[in-house]
Structures are given as C-alpha cells and as structure tokens.
Amino acid sequence: MKVTINRWNAVSTWHWDHAQEELCGICRVAFEGTCPTCKYPGDDCPLIIGDCKHAFHMHCLLKWLTTESSKGLCPMCRRKFKTATD
Amino acid sequence: MSRPANPWLASKGLLYDIVFQAADRRGDGQLFLNDAEAARSTASDWQLVTSWMMPQALLRSPGSTILAAAARLRQKNLLDRLLNWYIDSVRSHFALHGLPAIKSPDISGIMSDPISIGNSVRRVLSTLCDALHHYMFPISFLYAEDSSKEDMLARTRFRHSLNAMIDIALSDHEFQLMARLLVEHQLAACGRNEEQQIIDREEDEPKRLAFLAGIRQQIDILGVQDRMERIVADVYHTFIPRYVSQQYARIWEQEEREEPLMVELKNLIYGPISRCISTLIRRDELLEARLLELATECLVKLGIKEAFDMVIYFPDSIPALEYLKMCLRTQEHRAQLVTTFQNACHARLLHCGANTSDIISFYMSTIKVFRLLEPRGVLLDKVSRPIRRYLRDREDTVKCIVYGMLEVEDANTGDLSELGKELAAASGAQNADAVDDNDYFNMDWVPDPVDAAPDFRNKRASDFIGSLLSLYDNKEVFVKEIVVVLANRLLELKNYEIDREMMHLELLKLLFGESDLHNSDVMVKDILESKRVDSNIHDPTTVAPGTYPVAGIVHASILSRLFWPAFRDEDLVLPSVIEEQLNRYSAKFSILKSARKLTWLKRLGTVDVTLELEDRTLDFTVSPDRASMIYLFQDKSTYTLNELTARLNLDETMTRRALGFWIKNDVLKEDETCKDKYILLERAEERKKKMLLDDAAESSVQTAEEKATEEMRIYWSYVNGMLTNIPALPIDRIQSFLKMLIPKEVGYSRSVDELRDFLTVMVAEEKLEFVSGSYRLKK
Amino acid sequence: MSKSASSSLLLKQYKDLTDPKRAMPSFRIELKDGNIYVWNVAVMILNKESIYHGGYFKAEMRFPSDYPFNPPTFRFLRPLFHPNVYPKDGGLCVSILHSGVDATSGEAPSERWSPAQSVESVLVSILSLLEDPNPDSPANVDAAVAFRNDREKYNNTVRRQVEKSKEDIPAGFKIPESEVYAAPQTEDEVDDEFWYEDAETDDDSDEVDASGDDDDEGVANFDGSDDEDVDMEDSEDLVSGKRVDTNETSLDSDTETTLMKTSQDRKTLSAGREPLTPAPENEKVDLLRETPHTKLDPHETDI
C-alpha cells in the first residue's frame, strides 16, 4: 500500500524565545499574553529585553520609562535600562 | 261507596243514592213511592247520558232526548257526579287503550332513523290529540254554557284531569327519549351530519320546519308546551357542547373554513337552531343568547385543552389560535389555560425521555404562540417558567443552544437551526416595541394585567435567543461553550477559510458584547495571521541559502496559547518525513518572526491522505494520530497493539480508537486468530462481523469536564491511600474524607459530581472498580 | 484604558492576598466599599519577640489610577507611635513608597518605588519597618528621640498602644498564631477507630458530641461544607440543606466551648469558620448564607 499525504495541517503554539520567567514584572501578565493596553499578542505587543536580562512587555516598560520617577531604571534591578542588542 | 265503571251498576248505585238522598232531605227516612218514581226517571236519564258519553262509544252528536235528559240531570244537580264518573271512565279507558297505543313496538329500530322517529312522535302526538278530542266531545255539549260559572269550572276541572293523563302518557320514558332524539336530529340536520358532510340545508329545511310546525300544532292542542320547552332546552344544552367538541377539535387538521369560527357558530345558533326553536315552541331570544354563551364557553374549554397541541403543531395550528384568543378575556380562563398548559408540559414534555433540543424547540414554539395570543407576555411568562426551570437543570442545554446558534450538526443535539437563522438575522435588533414602564411620555401605557406575576418584567428582547440566554444568570456558560465550539471549528479548517466563523463571531459579539468574546477575536486573528505566515514560509523567494524549503503540503496554524481553550494534547510520533518538515517550518518561522519559537501540538490538526491499496484507492481526511498509524502500515502489514502504541507513543485507548476507525473503513482488520493483532487489507474483504464503534467527532479542545477531571488527578494519591486503608468506600464517604484530609494549602473544593466523573475515569483507566455502590482499588 | 489595566492588576493582587493558600497571615485585607483602589488593611504583629506582638493596627492603602507606575499610599487609621509614622495623619514615611520624583532625602534609587514592587512586597517592608525604624527620616520626632535615647519609655508606649489597638479587633475574629504563610498545623488526630466506625451514623449524624470529640465534630462540620459545595439540586439540597441548618446551630455553641477547651489551634475548625479573609470563589464557607439558596423562588413553585 502506498500512503500519499496530500496535505498536513499541523497546529502549533508560539512562544517568545527567551529564557526568563513567564510574567511581565510590571503588569504581571504572561508574555504570551498582551499588556493591558493591547488586544492582540505577538508582533503587536512584543517584548523588550534589557542588558540586565530582565524582560518586559515593550509597552509596559516604555510607559514606565516615560515617567519621571523611573529615571530610566529597570524596575527589577534598578540599573540603568539598556535594550539588549543581540 | 264504590263506583264501578259499568254504567249499569253505576246507575243502580245511583238509584240507591238518589232514593236515600231524597229520603235524607225529607229527613224522616221514609221512602215514598214518588221518590222511587223520580229516582227511576233519573236513573234512566242517567243511563241515557252515560251511554252516549262513554269513551268507547262512537262520537255522535247528542240527540234532543239526550240533551233533555242531560238538562233534567242538571236540574237535579247531578252534573258534578256525572263529571266525576266521566273522568273515571276516561281514565280507565285511556289506561287500557290509549297508553298501549302510544307505545311503539320497536324502539331501537326506530331510534336510528330520523324519519321513523319523526313519524313515531307524530303518531304519538296525534293519538293523544285524538284522544283529547274524543274525550272533550261530550263535555263541549254538556257544559257548553259560557256564562255559567259552574260550567266553566267543570270544564276546567275536566281539562286538568286530562292534562294529568297526558302528563302521565308523556312521562313515559320512551316518549321522552324519542322527543329528545327528534330534536337532536333536527339539529344535526341543521349543521353537519355525523359524517361531517354538509347536508344541503337549504332544501331540507322547509320540509323539516313544516314537520315541526305540525308537531307544534299538536303540542298546542295538548297544552304541553312547558314540557316541550324543557325538553328542547335540555337537548340543546347537551347538543352544543358535543357539537362544538366534535366539530372544532383540532381544526387545523381540517380543511379551510370559509368563515371564522365564531361567526359560524353564531350563524348556526341564530339560524337553523333558532328557527327550529321558534317553530317548536316560540322565538326565545333568551335561550338563544344562553346557547351562544354556552357555545363560546365550550370553544374556550376546547381551546384550553388543546393549547399544548397547538404549540406542537405550530404553525399549522394558527387558525385555532383565533378562538384561543377568546380564552383570554376572563381571569378564570387565563388561569385555567396556564394550569392546563403547565400540567400538559409536565406530563408530556418535561421528563427524561425528551431530547433537550426538542424541549428547546417546543419552548420556541411556545414563545411564538403565546406572543401571538398576548403580545404583552404575561401568560407567556407564567407558562414558560416550568419549562425554563427544567431546561436550566438539564446539562446539555447550553451546548444545544450554542450548537444551534452556530449551526453545528450533531446527532445528539438535533436541529435547532432556527437559532442559527435568528442569529444571522439578529443584527442587534433589540427592538423597542416592548413597552417600557419607565417611559413617562408614553400615552398608550397601560398597567400590567391583574394576573401578572409579581416579578413580571416586560422583557425587552422579543427574540428567542434572548429568552434562551436569560435562562442562565450569567452568560459565562455560553461564552465558554461558544469558545470551545469555535476553537474546534477553527482547527478543523483546511485552508484557513474563516469567513463563516468570522461572520458567526460578529453576530455573537452583537449578542454578548465585545469584551466577553475578545479571546475569540484573538483566535480568529491567529488563524488569519497563520495564513499569512504560511504563505510567506512557502514562498520560494524567502528560502534562506543553506536551508531546505518546506514541503508544500505542510501547513500550520500558529496559535496564541493563552487565548485558546485548554488543549487536549499529548505526545505522538509522526512519520519522519513530517517531523522533518515541521522542523524546517519552525526554523523558518523563527527566522521570519525573530524571537519567537513554535511548539507543535502533534495530535491536533487534520491530514488528507490517499491510500493506494492493491485493488482500490481511498481518500480520507483524518486526525494526525490516525494518519500516522496508517502510515506505519506502509512498511509492514501487520502490527500488534503493543507495537503500535510503542511506535506511535499513544496510549491504548487512543490507539484502539484509531484502529477502530480504520477497521470500520475496511482498511484494516483484526486478526481473528490472534487478538490485538491487526492486518492491512490490501484486498477488500467481506466484513464478517460489523463492529459498531463510536466514531463521534473528537474535540481537539478539552471540554470543561475533562479539565476538571485532569485537575483532580492530584487527589488520586489521597484516594489511593484511603482505599488502601478501607477496601471499599461509597462516593460520599470519599468526598468527606477528601475534604478532611487534604491540607489547606492544597485545598479541596470539588463537588460530588466532579468527583464522580473523576472516579469514573479512574475506573476506565482500570485503577478502580465500582462494585455495588462502592469503589475499590483494582488489583 | 489605563484604569482597567490598574484595576485588573490590583484585582489579581487582591485575590492572591486574600486566598487562604497564599495570603500572609499578618495582614487582613478588605476592599473599602468594594473599591479596588482603596484597601482596608489590618496589620497584625505575630512575631512573639516583637514589642508590637498582639497588636492589631488598622490602616488604609490607596492606589493611584496609574498603578503600578506610581506607588500607593499607606496610612494607619490610628496614628501609631513609631518614628516613621506621622502622628498627624498616620501616614507612613518609607522609601519604597516614594516614587523617584520625590526629593526626599538622599535615598538610594534602589529603595524607591518601581512597578516591579507588589502590594505584598510593600506590606512585608512595612512589617520590617515596624521592627526596625529608620531613624534617618523621622516623621514622629518624639518617637524617634525616644527610640534612640530612652528605649524603655519607647517600649512602654508601644506596649500601651498595642493594648489599646486590641479594641479594634472585630468580634469573633481570631488572630492567627503563626506568621508563616498559611502553615498547616498538625492534622487532626485521626482516631484509628474513626476509620472503622459505621459509615452511616458518622456522616448522617446530626448530633454533635459536646465532649469535643475531634472526629465527630470534624465530620459534622464537613457535612456542612460538603453540602455547600454540592450543586443546588432541589430535592437533595432541601433535605441536606435543612440538615445543615440544624447542624450549624448546634455546632456554633460547640465550637466555642471546644475552642476554650483545647488550646491547640483547631485548624480544621477555623478553616471552616474563618470569616477572616473574604475567601475567593468557592472557598467561601459561609454556612449561614446557605438558607436563601435552598429556598426556591416562590413564583417558580406556582404550578
């Protein structure tokens, strides 16, 4: 017998490729979910990872960094936040 | 002193009387010859008159001698006595001859035929009339003087006694019956006969009426109008209900009528029946009015009784609704309608034997019918309460409703496509034709009817879906089910064709609001996005140097895990070619979308395969586990169950199910000689025994129950420990032990039902067994 | 949009902190009038070594609408005698609650507010602050001075405060014994005999043994909560619901007597009876509320 596969519809789930824990430290929502202001996850609500290896929703972090009180510091380690470039 | 009928003897007695009377008058008790003489002449007079008067005698006008004799008797004040004697003799004569003549020989034969009945009645009445006439004849001569008071009195007295006789005759049972039947037949002839054919009323009627008139005449003569009236009234009062219930039962099953029911009835009553009555007795408007009332009442009762059936046969039963509307006028009728309907519901609908979808359809018909009857909705509210409560208690109500709305075809849930159509038509029409009690400017506002339940709210939503949704206090249950259905549908799509699902989703959003369903929005977007990504991945221009392209046959849906319901997924070993392709797909994806990776849910999705067997070629669309399994059979045509489970990394249940599918489709068969061995059928073989395996569509997504069961596995160790200590435990003890033993930080908050489901799964997995009400560990 | 962001975040944290499994026993939290932005927090000092031990201090936390980007405010409703508590309004002067904008003393940025902080972390630091006042930023000068110079007087004042604060303890509320996270006490001594008693009488027994026999009470108690978890099916509930009622009234008196009898923490009982934290969802064992459920809607019985 010969089995010909004409079409294989597979199903997968995506997740962010970073080694950190699963919740954004600011909004406490999983990274695979959205920050409080977005509706659709994924490209529309990406992550941002710092040199200090802490990850946040980009929107959450930017919101924080735009406040004066943040002084540009990472909320977790309070070092000056710089986006990882690799 | 006895008074024999024999005139001779009577006259003798008379003689003595006269003599002694005369003697008495004189007071000295002596008899004189004159007296005897006088007595003798009186006696002969008496003789003369009585023999003329005798009932048997032929009527002939009295000659002058008789009249003279009568006059002499009158002078002697003997007329009274004469009258008494006459009355007696009439009575006995009538009893002897009259009554037997009235009785008819063959009752039953006559009863069936209207004509012979009529004839019998007429015969009876004529006989009576003749008798009357006969007996009255002499009286008319003897007591003819109108001026004399005595004469009149005498006549009256005689008439009374005659009446008494007639009464006796007419109280005869058969006669009553006949009269009754006569009238009834007349009535029946007015309308339709027993075979539901319209007798040509126009022709027959004059004849009948003439007949009746004849009877009427006789009745007048006899002076028994009262009797007749009573009989007639009686008859009609029984006839009308019977007529109504016969003629108008289930009228939607009969042919179209030219006129509305009430008009028909009115015509009947004020037409033929009225004529009948007036001919027989007299025009009696009171009676007619009463009859009309009676007819209406009967119609109403009929309507109430049939209300349940009307709902079942809606919309055919619309003609019946018009007269059901009449039920709504009085409080009592409304209450009766509600009670009867509810009882019928309980007896015929709300029990274990009915399908949930049938109940829901019935409920929708109920809504339609009662809305037609009473737009305000008070009755509907009352009547639907038991149905609603029952639906709430059923487990699969939500599922049925959701499946209906989304047009899922499922043998279990039946056809509720109406809901789907309504959903499509809905487009947010929450119409405002329902009266708003808070609108102070509405001049047409009327207060609620008296019998509205205290918590009756005028429901805005005049649509079915609204009423169904309001069954449950919160919409969450619906949303959950909808999401599951939607997820399954989306994952079964072959080529990302989401138009239908998007449309459904839009409509559902109108119903439930955007926020509840926003997860579904993300699900749909995922599929859209997957389509884009997929075409990108397959685009030959995007192949990075040094990598292989992905085979065109492999496509993927890429989901955002958190927005989809929990998946039922475990491991599976796919054909290596596919694995290879999936790896390439992931790699390409990561290049395309930096910083993201894919995790494959290997058991989900669909596969199109073509099997080329020796003598046939078959096409299938199956789930991945089945596809992988049949793929294995390419290399080897026999496998044992254990081999399969090992190679595929599937558990036994799933393997068997997949095998069952292929066996059912005559691709594989089980080896008869060796159990659990399966052979590929290169050549089609006759199936010796049919295996009925359940091929119910499997949901990719965990149902709520499964999820609960999964979560309960944590408690398995406790249950195990319990049952090791005590070998057999019924479920409620297990429940209470679990509550007690499980420490607070783990917490135990399951219901008995969830526990039961879980234990059943354990039994299925052969870790437990359920014996006579208790659970035991399986050795 | 940000309001819903902050409210959903606060709701999440609130749920965590009131979940018996994850709550901190030292804090009893309620929403003021159901407003997620204003929390009524009762701080209980459970540490036996502390001079504040036994104290029940009511406080209020207010969250800004752009939480977590701005810190909440914390103030004691009864101004506490503590170097860092303002005597005027009970407000707390702690660096973690200061956003970076404040030009408050030279505090290192590491001590400031950041969105990574949670209510939990704030509460924990408040607890430690009570033990360890920060003399450098005195809100209550007297207290600061006393702390530094006359420790005896300081301690006495504090103890008086603690005693006075006990008035605030709500009636019928039991202060947790341990400050460790929901530490499970030793399990009920499950009598060996218990397992072999007749199943029927145990479960169905309405009588509660007043001698304080652990197991019977345990069973009867769990009958109550057992029924409460079962779905509201009419007949079953009517029968069992009524039984629950009689159960509970008898239990009540028994519970009190037993509490006094055994000093050991009756974890199981308190688990059932604890009105302390408004338990989330189905954990709530509010037995007294059972009756309304079992009563059917009167109009639905009008058949």
Automatic annotation (TrEMBL), chain A:
Keyword field contains Chaperone: no
UniProt signal peptide: none
Keywords: Cell cycle, Cell division, Metal-binding, Mitosis, Nucleus, Ubl conjugation pathway, Zinc, Zinc-finger
GO cellular component: anaphase-promoting complex
InterPro entries with a match to the protein in the record: RING-box_E3_Ubiquitin_Ligase (IPR051031), RING-H2_APC11 (IPR024991), Znf_RING (IPR001841), Znf_RING/FYVE/PHD (IPR013083)
Compartments reported by the entry: Nucleus
Main localisation: nucleus
Occurrences of domain RING-type (ranges): 35-78
The keyword Oxidoreductase appears for this protein: no
UniProt record, GO biological process: anaphase-promoting complex-dependent catabolic process; cell division
GO molecular function: cullin family protein binding; ubiquitin protein ligase activity; zinc ion binding
Pathway(s) this gene product operates in, as recorded in its UniProt entry: Protein modification; protein ubiquitination
Family in the record: Belongs to the RING-box family.
Protein name: Anaphase-promoting complex subunit 11
Native species: Lipomyces tetrasporus
Taxonomy of the source species: Eukaryota, Fungi, Dikarya, Ascomycota, Saccharomycotina
UniProtKB/TrEMBL annotation, chain B:
Superkingdom of source: Eukaryota
Protein name, entry field: Uncharacterized protein
UniProtKB/TrEMBL annotation, chain C:
Protein name: Ubiquitin-conjugating enzyme/RWD-like protein
Record organism: Lipomyces orientalis
Top-level taxonomy: Eukaryota, Fungi, Dikarya, Ascomycota, Saccharomycotina
